[in-house]
Every structure is written in C-alpha cells, then in structure tokens.
Fold each of these.
Amino acid sequence: MTEHPPRPDSARFAERDQKAEIVDRLYEVALDPIRLEDLLEVWEERVTALRVGALDNAVPLDDPEIDAHVNRARVFLDRYEATRAEGGYRVMLDDIPRSAAFVSDGGPRVTACNRAAARAFGLAEGGPVAALPFDPEDVETLRGVIRKVASGRAEKVATLRIRSGVTGSPVILRVSALDEPGLALVLSTELFWPDDFSHTVQEAFGLTVAEVEIVRGITLGLPLKEIAEQRGRSIETVRTQARSILAKTETHSQSELVRVVLGLMDVALLPAVAPNMRGNAGAMEPLPFSSFRGPGGRSLDYIEFGDPKGTPLLYMHLDYGLIRWPAAAERQARSQGLRVVVLVRAGYGRSALLAKGVDHVQGCAEDYAALLDHLGIERAAVICLGADLRFALALSNLRPGLVSGILGCAAQLPLRTAAQYERMDKWQRFILANARYAPKVLPFLVQAGFSLARKLGKEKFFAQVNGGSPADMETFADPEVRAAVLEGSEICLGARTSAHEAFTRECISSERDWSGLIHAVKVPVRLLQGDQDPQTPVLTIRELMVDYPELTIEFLPRTGQLLFFKEWRQVLERVQALLPR
C-alpha cells in the first residue's frame, strides 16, 4: 500500500524573491495606502498556487517571516492614520468627552483642549497654561515634564500627582508623547459633569434631585463626608441616601455605580444623531441613535424607522455598515406598516466589540436577541445582506419562535472550493480568500483598505472595488442609493470612526464553514441573488444550491451586491409572506 505524505498544517512562500517582493509592497502600502492595489497584484500572483482543491483540505498560509513584517508595517500604517489630515490631536481630544485633556508643547500657552478641560480647568485654546488650578510651582513642574516627554528626552509616558487648588483633591495627570513633533497630550482624572447630565441621570434611574447631587459628588471622587458637608446634611443621612441610590441603580458598590454613570455619560456626551445624516440631495431624514446594555453589559446602539407601531422587521446591515435605506424605501416602510429595527453590530459606530475569544456569529446572534428583548418584540422577520445570512440563521436557531422568516439579498453562502474564490472579482477575492487562507495577514490588509478609502473618498473607493459589476455601478449612480450607502456606512468608516477590527472579525467568521446553521434552520429562508454579483457569481450559487434544499433561491436580472438598494420594492413585496402574523 502506497503511503502518502501527511498534509502540512500550514503553507509558506518557498522562494526568497517572492517574500522580498511582498515585503517591499507591504511597507509601500504602510507609508502610502494608495499602493494597496500594487500589493494586491503581487500577493495574488504569489499565493494563488497555495489555494487549491476543496476547502476541507485547505492549508492556511502561516509564514513567520511575513507575519513579522506585517506587524512592523502595521506600526507604520497606524502612524499614517494618526497623522492624516482629518485626524490628529484635535479629533483625539474630541474623542475624550468626560476627562479633562489638553495638548501642549510645555510653553506658556495651551495648544488645544477639550470641552472637559475648558469646564474643569478653565483652559482655552491659545490661553495661558497658568490658568490651571494648581500651585504655580506645580504648573512649572508640569510644563517641564511636558517638554521632556514631547522632545523625547524622557519616557513616552509620565505620570504626576498634583493637588487641585479648587477641590483640594489630588489630580492624576498622564503626559504622553504625540506623533506631532514637540507636542504631548495631558490626560487628567478630573472629570467634567455636563450641565444637563443631572436630568439624564435622574430620568435613567428614577432618582430624586438630592440623590442626583450625591451621585455627582461620588462620580467626581468626593468622599461621603465632604458631600455631607457641602449639602449641610449629616453623614448618616448621606449614607442612607447612598444606599437608596445603589438599590435604584441596581449596583452593589460606589465603584460599580461610578462605572455605570460614566458609561451613561459616554453615551450622553456623544452626538445624538447619526453622523452626517442630515437632509441632502438624497433626501435622507435624520435618525437618532438609541443605546441599550447588551450581553455582558456592553453598550450597543440601534436605530429605527418606518411605522413605530408596525410589524417588526429586523434589518442586518452587512459588514460595510449600511444601516440606511434609500429615502423612498424608508418612506415605503412607513406606509406599509413596517417597524424596521437596525442593530449597530459589535465594533461598529459606538457599539462595543465582542470580547476576544467569543464566537463571532453566536455573539452577534445574542446581541440581536437582546435588542429584540429590549424593545419587547416577540417575533420578527429578517432582511439580511451578504454573509449576514449566518447571523439571521444563528438567531433563528438560538431562539426558536423569535424569527418568522428570513429574506437574504445578494447572500453569501459557505464556499466549498478554491475555484469559487477564484471566480470573485479581485478586490472581493483579495479580502475573503485571505480571510480563509491567511487570517494573520488580513488585519493589515483591511486596515490598509480603510486607509485607502479615506484617502480616495468613499465614492471613488466604491468605484474602484465594485467597478467589475456594471449593475452595482449603475445602482450607486442613483442619488438616493448613493446617499444611503455613504451616510449609512458612517458607522463603519467615518470622520471619527473606523470599524476595521470589527470588519476583519466579520470577514474571518464569514469564511468558516457555517453550513450547519443552514441545515438546522426551521423557518422559511428565501434568497434573492444578482446575476452580476462580483463576490458570489451565479455559477457559484448554482453549485451550492444543491447542498441546501432548505433554501428558496431567486435570481434578479441586472443586479449585484447592491441588489437590495436597487430592487427594494421587490424585496419589500417578497418579505410580506415572511412577516409575523
């Protein structure tokens, strides 16, 4: 009997010149993401030979030398992102909403500060550093530390403990170097309590005005004795009120209370309206974000549109975060009596990432179930895009009876062979094939893609990635579709948002075998597929259809990945049969 050599657990590049060429391209992309397509061409030329046969026997690329260069290149890419024109320390300060923070070169003037520093310390951009509420000697010490850190003559991070001249309490200051030469960020433990936040706390927990003032004092770090003195009450009275506060907020200690309040403050201080979702040529109506506590206490956002009292319809937004519909489609949802609910998935927008090690599909399904529970929805149909089909299936299997039916648009199914990757257009193959064969390299590729999208602008980037589908390009040219795609995707890639880590996790989970979810489904599942889909061509769908008799599949002509956005009228017509009765 002939013995076959064992299948290797991983593949590596055999030739030194192959590695050298790829390494050169990696660093070129890290220094300028516009070179990403050059990396794509070289990478695909070198790795195609490693992708052969059935995926059950796929050998992942695991080359320690390439991995080491990828990790170094990511450092350069991170620096590129930090210094891009629309980034820098001003955006960084805006992203620190509740702790007083400012940027300084150690001179007599403040370079920039956030709102919290203006309120807590009385600082102003270009104003005197001497305005800090510390002893003059302490201010001079701080300035000296800033100069040393900013110039590289000290450790990149230094910590000082200074007593506030206003409250008498100690303030911890963390001084860290910025990428901008000669500047340092000063982040303090001094918190900012917004003027209107007391009302928010009172409404959220049903507290009295007196109890809110005690919560404010505890959050700002004051001991109960000092709170009692400020309020002219006995310490016993304040302790009794503190116990009442813990009961009402369902917390068990002052430290847990502070964590809950600060979490609420993070939500309250961020914009209440989805970014850039204002009236424009696409006639998009502004939609407010709402938040709730999901599994593990994680903060998750969601939006709703349509008829608030209508039939529940859960919409899943694809890995590009397409949370908005064309304006006419959103109006039609209202007129058809549909209550459309959209969860901002883990890692997108302000929704917290799932903990590392958590199964991504299962974790997202639990988040969707938690949202429907939060809204009191006992049964809903689902519209999902692309590989989001796996989340809809997992939700249906997780909570029998919660999902009445699933309608997938331009759905992606678990692939079986390397040839099915080769049929994809080059950009789709570049990301998804590497999610399957080179998951260690994928984070760099995705982050570089996001950087490229920022540099080109999302419209040009869309044209570059989806140019192989005339149907998608024609659909994107529609002003209402373009507005929905560009504005909805702000949760994925916006002026202050980059969901590249979540996008990476989604791609890796989509390329694992989730066929068991399809075979286990107990509700009707209908798929609408495009004949010009650059990611899942017709031939691939036809090959896979035979494996899944559970699915009803219909092809719509002259459609691609944006099938839902072009044919939303047909989608809303087909979903009627799947709605809960």
Note: Residues 93 and 114 are 5 Å apart (CA to CA).
Amino acid sequence: MTTALRQAPAPEKHRLPRCNWGAVTALTLVGLVFVPLLPGLYWALGPSFKLDVWQALLVDPQWPQAVSATLMSALLGTLLAGLITAGLATRLYPSPTWQRLQQRLPVLLSVPHVAFAVGLFFLIAPSGWLARVTGHFLSWASPPDWVTVQDPYGLSLALALALKESWFLLWVLAALMGEQAVTRQLAVARSLGYSPAQTWRQVLWPLLLPRLRWPLAAALAYSLSVVDMALILGPGTPPTLAVLTWQWLSDPDTNVQAQGGAAALALLLLFGVISALACGVWWLLRRWRAYPSGQRRAAVPHPWPWQTPLLAISYAVLAVLVLWSVADSWFFPALWPDGLSWDAWRNANLAPFWTTLWLALVVSLLAMPLVLIWLEWGPQRWNAVLYLPLIVPTLPLVAAQYAALLRLQLDATALALVWSHLLWVLPYMLLTLVGAYRAFDARLMTSARALGCSSLQACLRIKWPLLLRPMLTAWAVGFAVSVAQYLPTLFVGGGRFDTVTTEAVALSAGGSRQVLAVQALLQVALPLAAFVLATVLARAWGRHHQGVR
C-alpha cells in the first residue's frame, strides 16, 4: 500500500496564467499618453451639456457664417485634395514622372501647414506676386480690389488645404499601391482592352478607396478644426467655427468657455454627419455600379499635363518665401525687390527656433520606443483607438488636455508640453511604421528565438536593425508633426513657450513680411533637416550593412 501511494501521481496544482509583461508594459506606457484625456474631456466639455449653453450658441450672430465658412473650406478642401490625388495617380502611374513625384513627396510633406499658408498668402494676395505679374502687363499702379485671401467663404483656405493635404494622401496612396500589387492588376486590365482611365475607375479605385477612408477622414477632421491656417487665410469677422471655438475656449468667462465647449462638440457632430453621408454615398455608388459595363474606350492620346501647375504652385510658395526673407524693399507693382539684404536673417529671433528644435527632438525620440514597444507587444486590435487623434477634430482633445493639466497643476510646464505633443506624434509615427512592421518576415524572429534569443534580444539584434530605414522615416515624420503643432503649444504652453509655428501665426496678423518669411522658412528648415538626416543615416547604414539595404 505504501508503494502504491508512492507511485500515485501527485495532484496537479492550479496554475495561474502567465502574465504577458510585454503587453502590460505597452498598455501602461501608451496609457500614460491617452488615459488622462478621459477625465479631461469630462472637465472640459461637461459644462457644455446644458440646454441654455446650446441656445446661446445657436443664437450667436457669428454662428451661421462661421458654420458656412467652415463647411465650405473643409468640404471643398478635402474634395479637391482627393480629386488631385486621384487625378495624379490615374494620369502618372506607373510612369517615370510618378517615380520622381514620389521622390519629391518628403520635401513637400516637410513644409508645415503654417509655412505653406504664409507662402500662399504672399503668392495670391492682392499685392502678391501673381498680382504683380498681372499688373506688370496691364500697367497697374496699385493692387487690385480683389478678395483673394481671407474671403468670407473660405475659398483661399480651401485651396491651401487641398494642395497641402493632397501630398499627404499621395504619400499614403503610394504605400497602398505597393501593398495591392496595382501594377499587375493594371497590366491585366490593359491586356483586356481597357484604357488606363477605365482601369482606375472600374477596377483599382474600388479596391483602393476603402483603404483610403481613414486618411481621408484625417484630412476632413484637420480641415474642420484647423486654426493656424484659418488665422492666415480664412475669413476674419466672423472667422471659421474652429477659430471661433478657440477664441471662446480662451475666454476667462466660464459661460463663454462652456459655449466654446459646445462649439467643439458641434465640430465633432459635423465630422460625424459628414462621414456618415460620405459612407452612404459610397454605398449607393457601389450598388449602382456594382459591375463594369464591359465597354472599352480609347485612351486620350495626349492628355494635358495638369500636374505641372500644381507642382509649380507648391514650389512657387517656397520661392516667394525665400525672396521675401531677403527683400530689402519691395513695393507694388515691382516684380523684383529693389535690393537684397540679409538684415532680416541677421536680426531674426532664434529663440523660437531652439525651443522648437529641443521640443521636437524630445517628443520624437520619446515616441519612437513607445511605437516599437506597442507594435511588438501591444494588442494590435486597439490600433484604431490610437488613431483617434488623427480622425477627430483637434479642438476637443486640446481642451481636454488643458483641463487635465489644470487639475494636475502642470500647465505651462515643459513636461506638459511634451505630453501634449505626444498625443499627435505617436499616432502619426505608428501609422508610418505599421506597414513595414507587418511586412517583416516573422520566420527570422522564429529562428532567433529557436537559437536562444529572448524576444527583446531578437528585436535588438535582428528585427529593428532590418527595419531601421522605415524607423528613421517614422522618426522624421514625428519630428515634423511636432514642429507643426500650434494649438497644443498655445493652450498647454500658456504663452511661455514660443515656437516657430506660434511665432509665424502671431506675425501673420501684422508686421514685417521679411520677418514673417524668415520664421516661416525656419519652420520649413527643421522638418526638412530631419528628413535629410533620416535619408543620410539610412544610406550610411546600408553601405556598411549589405543585408540591410
């Protein structure tokens, strides 16, 4: 009996499930960026859920014109950006011109929205360079009485948004076309007798547009809540709804702040309604043209190269900024300044430049390990939650940040400013890197684990060195996003931290055009330097590591 007891199997002990420390770490670190928004939203927007606040908002005399200007600029800007993107892809892909355009996209993306708005203002204003060229041939002695900027309908703002957002959509589209094997599908359709335009309209766009819905939503959300570009190019009295909301939220009167919170909620409501209508229109189009008709149409023999003026406008914006920064005196209708001078550069206030530099470096370098930890160990099904700052109007989130920091007594501190920028830098870097991360060959990690490496060691020795190029690109994108932040810097910084973005917007309200051009170019120089540095480092790494190219 004793022997039987000895040979009897011991009862199994109840084992607790192993804790996935990687996922816990990822959720904790990312939660430090996103979780404080939840009470902040309640503190910032809670007083707005009152009937009298909404009644005061709806009877405000500025409300109708602000809403109409916002809808006009946002809808027209997003629609034109989508049409420009579709037209360029249909017209150019896969020609060498498309490849050259892809190579220029980082340069165009590195131009912040504020700098682009300032350059476009110098270009199309009644005393701008285009009016000077026209006046030179028509013998004008004074600027024409045209409302080409700050018009009451927001048309100049819509033009700026369309041009700027089209480069972002093209950048996303170029990555999607690589994933969807568009070249093979285009070749098959061409072999069946369809023209390139028919192929894009009936085969490729139905496949690509559903993948572009989130970038288009991000462009719409930004257009609805943009403040910095609207202050430069948008209408003045009354301004767009986003500018009006910002003014109300900045007011010391709590009743006016509550009205600003209601206006921020109205921006969210507008975004939801427009998005729902767009989904409904897409569903109807798919039902109406579910299958191609089968009719073949001849291709246009020599289509007009309409992409040339679009590129010319973008480069003209940069050129006129450079010219104004070195102009001595430049009176209408002269095509060229009376003289060139470096006085504006020598006397430039570089304090905002250095503040922007250290802030963007700290934010982007902090965001990179957060993104890598999330992509490696975080629950990927929650990626959509991290993308919310990109597809939700900015003002409600900024108000939530500010309310949370006020309760914690951390407003107007460097730590608060870094945290406020992380909320937007992190999703952009994640969006940039997630495609390359998913395309990585998982068998390499399996082999490394089989040879005795831990998960972290395999990442440090195998995965992340092989992904260095897309990681550097993501870092450059995060750096550029931090440089371009206006509302978080203004609200959270409390006026104690001047960046090149806040300085350029402040100077656009009045002052020397030379000084404004210098600050706008300094804003361009920082993201451009980040993209150049990322390219140089990636090439240097590839030269010394043959397998990483």
Note: The two ends are 70 Å apart (CA to CA).
Amino acid sequence: MVGRPMLFLLFALSAVVATVVAVVGRRRRSTASAVGALAFLAAGIAGWSAADALLALIDDARIARVFQTVKFLAIGMVPAGLYCLSLAVADRRWRPSRRMAVLLGVEPALVLAAIATNLWHHGFFLAADNVDPHGVSTPEVGPLFWVHTAYSYLLLAAALVRLLHSWITGPPAQRSLYGAILAGASVPIAANVVSLAGLIPVTGLTSVGFSVTVVIIYWTLVHRSLPELVPVARERVFDMIDDAVATIDASGRILDLNTAAGQLLLRLAPGLPERLIGLPLADLLGGLPPADGGEIETALTDGSGRPVELNVRTSVLRDSRGGHAGWAILARDVTALNRQRRELEQANAQLLRQRTDLESANARLHDKQQQLEDSNAQLHRQLRTIELLRADLVEQATRDALTGLHNRRHLMEELRREMAGAAADGRPLSAALLDIDHFKQVNDRYGHRAGDEVLTWFAGLLGEGFRRDDVVARYGGEEFVVVFPGATAEQARARVETLRERVAGQEVRADEHELRVTFSAGVAAVMPGQSPDDLLQAADEALYAAKRGGRNQTRVAAGPQPETSHRAA
C-alpha cells in the first residue's frame, strides 16, 4: 500500500506537470486551436491532481468534502477539454463558439451544485460523512454521481470516436498524429473504466495517467507534424517556387514562409535573426495587408539603400466560423520588370512619330505581358507539383503502419547515430532482437487478423516497457528491435527479461480468441569496429540460440559480458 506522503508527492508532481503544459499551451494557443484546447484540458487535470494531493494529507472529513467538490469541478473540465481537442485536431480551422462553451459548462455547474447541496439530498454521495479524507478512492456514491459519470463517458466516447474516425479517414500524413493522441487519451480512460467497474484494486491514479497523456499530446502536436518529420524534402519543395510565399496571422506575425521569402526579408532587413517564424511581417512591409486581400505594388529600400519594388498578392484566410484568421501572401520582385516598363514608356515617348519603332515597342510590351502570363501558369504548375510531392512524402514516413512503432529505416539511422555517439564518448550500447514465439501458428490457426492484433498488442507493451531514450522499432514480420543507449548487455538483458515475464503472464484477446504469447530475445553489446549490421547479426545469433534452447527466454551474445540466459518458469 502506498503511503500518504508518497501519494501526496505523486499527485503534486502530476499537478505540476499538467500546470506546466497548461501554461505553455496557453502561451502558444494562437498557433493552433488544438493547443488552446490542450491547455484547457491540462488545466482541468492540474486542478484534479492538486485536489488529490491535498486530500492525501487531510484527515478531517468536512475539509475533505470541500476539496472533493473542487476535485469534481476539475474532473468536469477533462471530458469537455478532450472533446474540444478532438474537434480542433480533426479540423484545424475549428474555434470554440460561445454557445458550445455555455453548453459544455452546464454539466460541471450542475455537479458543483449537487455536491454543495449533498448534505440535504445525499444524491451524489450517499452519506454526509462518507468522504475518504485521503482522496485516494471515491466515496460511496449515489445516483447523481452515476449520471455525472455517464455524461462524462459519453463526452469522452464522442471525442475518441471523432479521433478514431480522423485516424481512419484522415490524410495519411496526419494519421500518426491522430493515432498518438487517440492512444494517449485511451489508456487513462480505460484504466478508470476498469477501476470504476471494480475489476482492479488500484484506484485514484487516473489524474496521474491524464498528466502523462497531456504531455504526450503536447509533444505530438508541437514536434511531430509532417513538415518537421521531413524538413529537407519540404525545403526542396518550397525552393521550387521562385516567388516569396508566406502566411501570417491576423496580427501580422509570420506563420510560415518559403526560402525565397526568407531571402527577400533578409535582403530588406539584414539584421533579422536566423529564425523568422513569429516575427511581425507587417512591420517589414510597412503595414498589414488590405482586410479583403487583393493585389498591390509597393516600393521599399533594401539594406544597401537600393529600391525594391514588389508586386504583392494577398488572400484572406478564414477560420471555421468565417472569422478573419490571417493572410496568404505571394510577393514578386518586379524591380527589373518595372524598370523595363519605364524604359519602354520613355522609348515610346521618343519614337512616337516613328510608327515602325512604335509597333516594335508594342510587340516587346506584349512579350513582357506574355511572360507574366507564362509565369502565372508556371506558378500554378509548381503549386500542383507541391501537392503531388506532399502525397509522395507519405512513402517516406518513419512509422510502421500496423504497430505505430518506428520502422526499420528509422531504426538503422538511429542505430548508426547512437553507435557513433557511443564510440566517441566511450559509452556502452546494447541492442535486443525480439521474436514472438510460434507466431506463424497464430496466423495459421486464427488468421492474419488475429496475428495483426497480437503484433499491435505486443508493440503497445514494447512502447510502454522501455525508457524514453530507448529506440523501439519493428524490424520485420514478428521481429522487433530495442536499442539501449548507455546500457551494457547485462543491463539490457534485465530490462528485456522484465518485459518477457510481463508478456508471458498476460493473455491477449485476438479476433475473439484468448491467447498466451511469449517471445524469445537475443541481446548483444556493441564492440569496437562493429557496424550496425554486425551488432544486429550478433543479437540475431543470440536470438536463435534462445529459440534452439526452448524459446521464451533471453540469451546474450558472446562479448565483453558473460553469456547469460533465463528460461520461463
């Protein structure tokens, strides 16, 4: 049984983590509505965890009742926050309306009123003094609590269904984002459902699980978008556009821009920082674009004092409610073209009486106009090329489509990087090759659908069972690889053994069949002069030694550490 001081520290840490996410998310809410919704969700979880922390130290039931009221008010924010997050992730133009805010606030207000008046009706908690002063478990509850629970899970289910629908039908490039958010939100919800049903003895830790969830979702939203996954390809695509292209928000700050736009801005203001995202473009161009967009020409001066004439086209960007969200800007340097036009005008004035020369000048002017039309056509072709290339980027994704783990290509890149770092710093590095035992029999007996569900289940345990710095990847078929930076072969073997015992002690439900799954593993530590392929080959040889030794065990390849093995009981 966990002691009260330990519970207080656990809940307090959870509250601090959720508060940090809420504060950072609120500061960055202008970048995307999903970040703002996540900040609201994190605020509710922070309040929930803080109330749990205080309840863990309180012995007086009356005071505990007050903090239980605060706790349930914070709990009411969580389903609403997750629902808004699912809307914002599915449609990035979505913004919360006042009507939705009022509707989502009705149920928490009713819950607060029910708890505050519980002494008179006992509809939420069955007895006035039946409040757990330590806050670890829910008091004996009445019918209003179950009404609140049913509403909360209906709202959570709506959010999960929307995320699942987006994951299934959304753009392939964004499915990893939807999948990560869906997985992160499902785990604490499922744990709470099982806890409320009385199927497991551990209760009261749902707020801690949600704190981990908001960290995962925030990291996914901010760091795992497609342009960040393939920055080199993205730059090449944008480099194909010779004109400056940028998007700005309603305040005039840069949201995104291509290389040509960055070069133009540095030419106009050489002292700008290297990172231009977030800078006020309106100040650099002399003001905000017209409210309704359009086309204008403006004359500026670059850092060398030379004039720069720009043809600027702007299109208004609107959110889901039709509100003004910003502008898309296309700027073309027409300094040379305008100079040529002025020279033509001067030539026409001088040769006005010479018909032949005038016709020649008109022909040249027509050619320039044709060049403009050709440039516009080329721009449309380039934009079409961008869309095609973006679709092709799906093929370069670093995630395995079935399990969501890193794929073999990403594994080899990370392994080369980690081995180079280990060689330079003199740190140990180990790798484990895991193979599900008798997996072919699962496919043959129960079908490939059951086999896929076993792989997905096993991949989920892998993702949860190792450290954040470890590299977990699907190597192929039923084989998986885990890279342990900073770990010796014996340390890696111990971690793999912990997972092996956990897997062997569980059952997995695959296509309506209850199965027992085990795996065999081979562990190898990197040795001087080895390549990634050599290291994996050594782990593979140890794996097959485990297979030959009876499966469901871990073997260590011959190396600096002594060979060890462990057979399941």
Note: Confidence is low (pLDDT under 50) at residues 128-137, 225-234, 561-569.
Amino acid sequence: MTIRQAILGGTALFALTLPAGAEMQPSLAFTGVTGLIDMPSGDQQSDGVLSFTKSQFGPVGRTTLSFQITPRLSGSFRYSAVHDWAGVVPSTFATYYDRSFDVRYQIAREGRYMPAVTVGFQDVIGTGQHAGEYIAATKTFGDKIKVTAGLGWGRYGSYGSIGAPFGERPEIDYGTGGKPRLGQWFKGDAAPFAGVEWQMSNKLTFKAEYSSDAYLEEAGRRKTFDRKSPFNFGVEYGNGRGMKFGLYSLYGSEIGLSVQLAIDPHKSPSGGSVGPGPLPVSARPAASGWSSDWVNDRGSLTAMRDGAQTILSHDGIVVESLAVNRTTAQLRIRNTKLDNAPQAIGRSARALAAVLPPSVEVFEIVPVVQGVAISRVVIRRSDLEQLEFAAGQDGLMWQRAQVLSASRRAPDGAVIGQGLYPKFTWKASPYIATSLFDPTNPLQADLGVRVTARYDVAPGLYFSGSVTKKIVGNIDGTGRPSDSVLPHVRSDANQYAANGDPAIERLTAAWYAKPGQNLYSRVTVGYLEPMYGGVSAELLWKQTDKPYALGAEIAYVKQRNFDQLFGFRDYSIVTGHVSGYYAFGSGFHAQVDVGRYLAGDLGATFSLDREFASGVKVGAFATLTDVPFSKFGEGSFDKGIRIELPLAWLSGKPTQKTSKVTLRPLLRDGGARLDVEDRLYNSVRDYHATDLDAAWGRFWR
C-alpha cells in the first residue's frame, strides 16, 4: 500500500465511523468555495452568506464571489489570472485571464454518523480551463476537527487517477464560450482527495490536504510553477467578524496567501441601527378633555398636521396630507430617509397617537412614492397601545393590520403639507465608476464628483438631472475595441467612459400617475441614461395584496454622442418589453421580460433575486434572444450577477442609499436593455403586502 492510499483510506474510514460533534464554522478554499485549501469540502456556508475571496500562490491568482442561495444550494463567480502564461508555450497572453461559474448542492446534511455530502460543478459555463466535478463528504468531530474525503473529475481527477468509471471525457469545442458542457460531467479520470481542519483556537485554524489537481496546463505544459507534491498545508486567522487571512505551503514549492470576507445578510456589520429610537406610544388622554368642536376647526387640524410633522421630521418622513374625522385619520407620508417601509409606517402611527384626539381609533397610513399613493395601511389605535410591549408583538400587529388599495387623492377636507410643491433640491457627492474584466487591464476605475438636482412641480411631476466630473482614474478607452457584428449599442461603453468628462448622465422630465385602482404609470422624457435619450412610457398592474404583477414598457430612443453632452449619433430604435413579476416567498423574486432589445433583437430576460429583511439583495439574470451564439460573440449570451447592499445596514445610520454592483463576464450588444431610473415595479412594491410582510420585524423599532 502506498503512502497516498494509506492517507486516503485512513481519512475516509475516520470520517465515516466516528460520530459527529459540535458544529465548526465552515471555511473557504483558494477557489472561493466552501472547502479546505485548494480542494472543496462537503460543508456549506450558512444560508444567505455572501463571501469574497482573494487568493494567490505563485503565478495563480483567483478572485471569487460566492453566495449561499439556499441552505443547500450555492453559486460562485470567479475571475482567475495565471501569470507567465507565454513563458514556455507561445501565447498572445502574457497573463491568462478567465471567468467561470460554479454550482454546488448539498445532497446530505451532517448527522450523528452521516457526513455532509456535496456535489459540485466548477466552471460550468466558462472556457473549461478550470472545469471539474466532485463529490465531497465532510464530518465534524468534537468542536475542533473536521475531516473531508472526496472524489473528483476534470481538474479534480487529474492526479492519482483510479480510472474512468463513467467513460472517457470527450473533447468539446469551446467556440464562443459561455455554454454548459453537460457531456463532460463526471466523465474521464476520477481521483480521490482528502484533508483535515483543526481549529486550534477561536481565531486560528490549521489545514492539511491531499490534492487531486495536477495543474496539467499551468505546472505541466506551460511550466508556470513546479508542482513537487500533492500535499498542502496552511493556517488561517479569523477576526471573528467574517474576515480571515491565510498563509499556506502549496504543492511543495509555493507560498500562498488568501483574504476571505463573509457577509451574513441577517446580521448588520455595524451591530444595529444608531439612529434615533422610536417615540413611545402615547397614552390616550381622557375623552372629556377634548371639545367636539375640533372636527370642524381648520386650525385644530392644521395644528395636528404640524405636530405630526415635527415628530416625523427626525426620521425624514414628510407629511403630504392629514385628514381627520371623529374616529378615523388618514395620514399621507413620503419617506425620504428610513430604509425599511414597516418602520416608517410604525413611526407614523406613533406620531398620530401623540397628536390626535382620543376618539380617533383608526389610523390609515398612505405611503406616497413619486407623488403616487401606493397603499393604505390600516392600524387600530387600541392595538398599537396594547401590543407595544407584548410578546410576539410583530406577528400580532401584522395579523391585525390591513393593507388595502389607496385612492388617488386625499380625502375631502385634508390639510395639505406645507412647502411641498414646487420645490428644488440638489446635492453633490463622490462617485466611483468601474470597468471590469478587460484582459489588457482587468480592473479600471474612475473617481469623481456627481451633482444631482430635482425640481418637483406637482405631485408625480418633476424634472431631474445629474452631471459628473472625473477627478482621477484609468478608464481611458484604450481597452479592446468592439468586434461586435451587431449595432454597437453597449460594446462601445469604454468610449463613453473615456470621452464623457464632464458628462450629463441624465436630464429628464418624469410624470408618475395612478390611472386606475391597481394601475400605475410612468412617462420619462429626455436624456434617459448615459448612452441614450428619448421617451419611455410604462404601465404596471399590481394589486396591493397579491405577489404577482404585470407591466409593459415602450420607448423610442436615440444613441447619444460619446461626450455625453447634448448631441446624438445616427442610431435610433423603438424598444420595449412586457414583464411578469412574482414573489415566491422566503425572499425570492422572479421577473421575466419579453420584447425587443436595443440592438433590435427579440427575446427574453430571466431574473431571480433573493432579498433579505435587512435590504440586502443578491440576484442573477440571463438573456436569450434570436441572435445566434456565434453572432453574439464571446460569452454566447448576456448573463450576470447583481448585488445591492443598503448603506443603512452597513453603517447603522438611517439612509435609503444603497451600493449596487452588476457583474457581467462580458458586456456585449445582444440582449441589451435601456437603463431608465425608477421603473414602476420597484417603486411600488415596498409598500404592498408581500414586501411589508417580509420586512415587518422593524415595525416597532
């Protein structure tokens, strides 16, 4: 028996015969997936965890973003760079850059005797340079030791093969890339791998593994490094707040480093909100202390409105109007600061309890977005008083509250808020623009100043614009010129970035309205986005208490000049889509858009996002149109990942600002859609029942 066989056999026997102990936190491998050092494991991260890994050993560098989509399913996007690529074998690349996607599914969770078992697919739709499949089993012993044993194919079956149990691995023509290679999965040589993790202390972890990756291209054919041994060793230090640093000895010849950051969307990095706390629910005064004349006294109603506005101004809530009769009050609000819709409703209800006469029992709170009434949340004052300190107060209040449709106009006799229309506002703030994944310069960025302004003419009607001025950066338009055979509707983006300084990002007039009980409309005219100007019209049908919606949008646009000032290029088109939306629950939101894209191609975009009560959003999308893969170009079809992190969640300070990033492996012209601000669905749904229910835990905060 060889040393390798003894180690693998002993590890597997150890993993399968001893009972599991207390749970150790799962760690990340060099590839950015849950694993050992360079090998995967059977573990998964906690549900919803978003992790970022940067690793380097010798000439091999990897940057990976991973997301635990469900408790069992995870996905990863990786950007790899191998230096000295042309050192031995002639190549047009001195450094080889590659993008890849991974998918992992845990088919068995760890039990007393059963290890956690995960099936993984690496580089499922990339070039195939890093493609590999595996089955990995991991078991925990006590609170210090984890043992992993697995079997790999592809890259993971390239060293120490035990044969090809499912047949030879076929060669597949890469073509334009970006397509799954189902015919290769679990084909070709299979090889075992194994490893152990020892948690030395709360912050230090030791790892050792036997790797089944021979690095045939990097270490073999191209000799970018010398692979002397299959054994890897390392130590990782964690600060207890999701960040780890690792130092490793790899393949008997290289020193490796890694930085890992894990973000749990269920836990705020700041530890919670540091904004002002809510107003206590005011005890109702005796009814005998109030005269009945207040109902018809305009001065009394105005005083109530002003009192509510004084209280709510600390939370950035604007009183649009207040209507009161003996038993019912309707307060229309505009939330400009709080990032949580139920929190804005809860604080508005507390303000009403503080300023209204004791006979008013029913509070109707109507959120107004872009001048349009979105819903009517009905709360009984007695429930507010009784449940403030009750056990399970969130669920009890949600059971008693009602979310109904709102009328377009405030009730007759309502006292309108002061100084709302017309109103001019502006601000200046820094901005960062990035350009990613260009092989000649993978990371480019500009830093500058953005000035935005808005003039509200009347409810639902406003003018707005934004101008940018670059201060420093390296997005200069010297990247690869577009080779697209389609109209260059997006692939000249580097030209816009290089020539737009200063640039008019947007300059528009917008009109939002509510033409029917469940209908919402938008018309936007002007310079709609950095690359296009024209007119866009949208109509959305959405019921207040339903998880689905239908929408339609049509636009006529013309391509703007590269300098992003007032001129236009020759290209123009009519584009539009019919859209369907559905909220599945557990934070999953699906969207399908069918129609005509900017290059004139016809097709559909499929999107799936997971959203958390904290406001964190992670999603993926793919667009398939009538453009053949060969004509689309590298990547075959448009696809990507999008992430949105609320700044309030990151900092703990109340704000509605978010940090958004969209990761596309390639920006091509097929499947390109107009980028209009404040489309209807996302403007409306925060205050409808499905989204309110998901975020209701902050009603009392």
Note: The longest strand covers residues 441-458.
